[in-house]
Amino acid sequence: MAKKLIVACGSGVATSTTIAEKIKAKFEDDGIDYPVEAVDYKSIMNELPSASIYVYIAQPDIEVLDRAAELNIPVFAGIPFLTGMGMDAIYAEIVEETGK
């Protein structure tokens, strides 16, 4: 499986890019070398097979969650990276998934 964290929002431009950049910055601060990419939700089913961690903005469809489960890809809420509420706990779980 590829080692890549993907962040998906509706367009793959605004919110997902903001969250991806926040996660990248935190990884850099913590010395974690792990690819992070913003993607649009319309292409999520094509993106999942090349991912190892999935961070969502809007609640994904059940088909997306089922596919992530089939691929053993952990799924995390991304909104805490915008609000700051609960961000540290989710970030710690993401870091655990990177194996660092």
Question: What report would you give on this structure?
Answer:
The chain is α/β, with parallel strands linked by helices. 44% of the residues lie in helices and 17% in strands. It has five helices and four strands. The chain has helices at residues 15-29, 44-47, 62-70, 80-83, 87-98; strands spanning 5-9, 36-40, 53-56, 75-77. The chain has a four-stranded parallel sheet with strand order 2-1-3-4, with helices on one face. Strand 3, helix 3 and strand 4 form a beta-alpha-beta unit. The model has no long low-confidence stretch (mean pLDDT 93). GO terms for molecular function: protein-N(PI)-phosphohistidine-sugar phosphotransferase activity. Residues 3-100 form the PTS EIIB type-2 domain.
List the SSEs and their pairings.
Blueprint: E1 5-9, H1 15-29, E2 36-40, H2 44-47, E3 53-56, H3 62-70, E4 75-77, H4 80-83, H5 87-98
Parallel strand pairs: 1-2, 1-3, 3-4
Structural descriptors:
alpha/beta, 100 residues, PTS_EIIB_2/3, 5 helices, PTS sugar transporter subunit IIB, EC 2.7.1.-
Summarize the structure.
The protein is of the alpha/beta class. 44% of the residues lie in helices and 17% in strands. It has a four-stranded parallel β-sheet, covered by helices on one side.
